[in-house]
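Q: How would the structure tokens look for this protein?
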Amino acid sequence: MIPEIAIIERNTLTALGLQTILEELIPQATIRVFHSYEELIDDTPDMYAHYFVSISIYFEHTAFFLERKPKSIVLSNGDPQIPLGVPVLNSLLPQEKLIKAFMDMRTKGHEMTHHPVKAHSKENMPVLSAREIEVLILVTKGYINKEIAEKLNISLTTVISHRKNITEKLGIKSVSGLAIYAVMNGYIDADSI
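A: Here is the predicted structure in token form.
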């Protein structure tokens, strides 16, 4: 059976570069490039053995790719703060290292992720309080501490304390990392960020 691979990437150069590399590594594969999620859906989306998807498209359509988690590989731009729980391929690596990372992923059934942040299992998932979740949601929506305090009717010091606790529990310091965590754990919809 000939493997079919989908590349879902808005950046034409990135898509074509990855297509060229994959054609060299897996000459028997049929590789299709889609510049949007909608193009993929207009095709036959479930026929592919693997989906190489840009991180932005992944976050816009997380539910689709999580259902196809064993087949999905996210193309990142080297951000080490991505707690996805799916394989991540750093598209900024030099060609030799990118090929090695891909081959390592392929030989291991792409169980590994290419970033230092480990996905939490359900058993050791950090537990955020209801108030910390409210603060997390407002942070991901772009509110500053003072606005969060006013919105939740709590003091500025309390907001700062909650943010510190969230950062310590999750081990994520950047707002973008917190947003990714919130989306991945269903606290907020990607469209509302």
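Residues 149 and 157 are 9 Å apart (CA to CA).

The first helix runs from residue 12 to 25.

Upvote if useful.
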